[in-house]
Give the backbone structure.
Amino acid sequence: MLTAGIDVGSRTTKVVILDDGNYLTSGLLPTGANGPERAEEALKMTLDEKGLLLTDIDYIVATGYGRINVSFAQEKITEITCHALGAYAEFPNTRTIIDIGGQDSKVIRLDTAGRVEDFIMNDKCAAGTGRFLEVMAENLEIPLKEIGRVSLQTAKAAPISSTCTVFAESEVISLVARGTDKAEILRGLHLAIVKRLRGMIHRVGLEEELTMTGGVCLNQGVRKLLEENLKMKINVPERPQLVGAYGAARLARLKVAK
């Protein structure tokens, strides 16, 4: 039985295909301006890798920011549900999930059976998200993949008072003009993200184990500061950007099995 999950995020579109519930293959493309078209492209690319056709897939679940426009999916489920299912499948003792995507962030609390008990979501602005870090990396002229490592080169954090992308960008430009060390600026930016996340976490209620998903958890600077701040180890999936799509594919399998 082949099932697929498609997570159409604001920045990237992810696909995971499972064979009888086991990971078979996956794909990822930038979402761009045409989400529905990109969803089709991402699925076709992933199917082609294994020599499969759309008709070979028994059930497709779409999730994410652009799920409503995925016309070929049999069902469309919120990313909260799919991220919960995906993270819980990888780490069965997970009780709290932090997901930081391209344009939003969310904290989800689960019960012992992996069901969603409560959640909070910031989808009104890019504060503390992947896009926030992209803008800051551009201003500092440091590759996005390197900013986490660079931030760990110092124990001193430059003062950043805002996680609003516009205001924080202005602060960064001023700090650079004053000759502030870039590692200190990055540590300050990461600390600002962590403080914002901590507020969201405490509103939902923090329970061990804690699992982090989304592209930003690949940033070791954010992850390490968050662990230090919460005094708790964080689980990181092998494919953190694909957790929502993985959860959607698992949900698709449950639908077929009924």
